[in-house]
Amino acid sequence: MSVRELVVLGTASQVPTRHRNHNGYLLRWDGEGFLFDPGEGTQRQMLRAGVAAHDVNRICVTHFHGDHSLGLAGVIQRINLDKVPHPVSAHYPRSGQRFFDRLRYATAYRETVALLEAPVDTDGPLVRTPGYTLEARRLSHPVEAYGYRLVEPDGRRMLPGRLAAHGIQGPDVGRLQREGSLDGVALEDVSEVRRGQRFAFVMDTRLCDGVYALAEGCDMLVIESTFLDEDEGMAVEFGHLTAGQAARVARDAGVRHLVLTHFSQRYSDPEEFERQARAAGYDADLTVARDLQRVPLPKRR
After folding, report:
1. Which of 92, 153, 183, 300 has minimal Cβ neighbours within 10 Å of its Cβ?
2. Which DSSP category does 14 fall into?
3. What is the pLDDT of residue 213?
């Protein structure tokens, strides 16, 4: 059975706290797992969350600040220790190749798994499969950073009433789907477009074109909200977003489920992030992420 959910492994910005680990997020997308921004302690958080090394097919790093990448060494070694039976691809900014190399070979270990390096240096599609396209967009941060977006191809939803009206049933339905027409009846006559799901992951950044491009029309947007709105000046200075800014992006992009994360340790009340997001006009599903939380993607439209 297909499963699409976000497993939150860590939600802290810069430093871990008593209640928040460094960043780490696993997206389960049917039979694949996308591990985003594994910060320090990710390997242990995976254990606590019931995520195995075998669950990881792709590692996507937005940028090489420690809270988004220091866990790479442990995760990569665990993948090899457990002899994961499939290749694992790693996407990260090409400008950080030296950091990736240091983390990949931080200590001695036996390599048993094909780790396929696929660095990112431009906007656009990175991977196309029958089930999704993985895209990247440049963000605005003091070091080079990219956000990631998964787009499922649109499909078609069969309409039972129209099928019955044309006398199409049983094996003929599958034949019509495969061939596109049957006895003068076109597939478009008895079906409608089923929009593919979209997921975006946006970490450390100021507002920029890349943020809006990644968020557009998403079913789920995971986005940093390091600061509260009263500290917008610091957000701009250090290359981050506020809760209100993130919520307005989601509102204007038509996001169905907004997940706020990457919180500064200076704030003690996580509910204030939700209050400010709602005050900014976002009225759809909203999650203020906490460690070890599971958040299912919305059902298809």
Report:
1. 183
2. S
3. 98
